Amino acid sequence: MKAVILAAGKGTRMGGLTDEVPKPMLPVEGRPILEHIVTGLREAGVGEFCIITGWKAEVIEGHFGNGSDFGVSISYERQTVQDGTGKAPELAKSFVGDDAFLLTYGDILVKPETYQLMLKRWAGGELSGLVTVTGSEDVTKGGLFFFDGAFCLNHLVEKPSEAQLDELRAQNFLKDGETAWYNAGIYIFQPRLFQHTARLEKSPRGEYELTDALSSMLEAGESIAGVEIAGRWVDVRDPDVLRALQNAAE
Predict the structure, then answer these.
(1) DSSP-derived secondary structure for 37-105
(2) How large is the greatest C-alpha to C-alpha distance in the chain, in angstroms?
């Protein structure tokens, strides 16, 4: 399995912490966030990486080099226009070739067991994609994913409004007291993903959204499995989260 890591953004919510380094290079437990991701994937058996860099790209590329110091092979592509998550994976099309690939953001920390669960589920069926989720009864946290009895994706709503939440309840997608599943931002795709990203239009936020490509895949009848995150899942989204991680490591 190959891996593509999206690490091009500055991380503006981090304020001055990312003036000189990209967010994925901020330290957790004495190592950059991105290093935790690379070594965790390596433990799961992933050996080939393409890292999409952008802001302060030289910091990432200088730290990891060709990957040999970390027991893997790493190449790079630079995202010069920050226009959302939907188009960024296309920069790795040549790297991916005809192979399936794991896709993750460069600021999401999980245990290596999660990657192993993903690869096991992927090997168990003919799939076009796989998404990871975290569960909560709070339905206001982010992108909601819905699954059938085989835990394959059959519906999604990105950042639902109150009106959309009411509609989801009326349609019986949401039920009081039941777990709501949230997009955890780590995926596996067949290269046919790029057929759907190629047709993306910008969202109301003015960006190309990867979740719109997932919706397109569902409309085309593509099979997308789900996997619940095993244990820890941390989106290192702001200084408070980073500080909590650093304090926990002390």
Answers:
(1) HHHHHHHTT--EEEEEE-TTHHHHHHHHTTSGGGTSEEEEEE--S---TTTGGGGGHHHHTTS-EEEEE
(2) 54
Residue-wise DSSP of 117-138: HHHHHHHTS--SEEEEEEEES-
Q: Which residues contact 107 (CB under 8 A, 6 or more apart)?
A: 7, 11, 23, 24, 33, 235, 236, 237
Interatomic CA distance for residues 139 and 178, integer angstroms = 10
CB 145 within 8 A of CB 181: yes
- Interval 95-110: pLDDT, tens: 999 999 999 999 999 9
Its pTM stands at: 0.94
Domain 2-249: state its class.
alpha beta
Task: Give the tokens for residue 186.
Answer: 């780590």
H-run or E-run covering 189: strand 180-189
Residue 197 phi/psi, 5-degree rounding, is -65, -30
Q: H or E segment at 196?
A: helix 193-197
Q: How many residues does the chain have?
A: 250
Condensed to tens digits (0 to 9), the pLDDT of residues 32-61 reads: 999 999 999 999 999 999 999 999 999 999
State the pairing for strand pair 31-32/27-28. Answer: antiparallel
Tokens of 192: 């046919």
What string of DSSP letters covers 26-48? SEETTEEHHHHHHHHHHHTT--E
Closest among 205, 227, 201 to 216, alpha carbons compared: 201
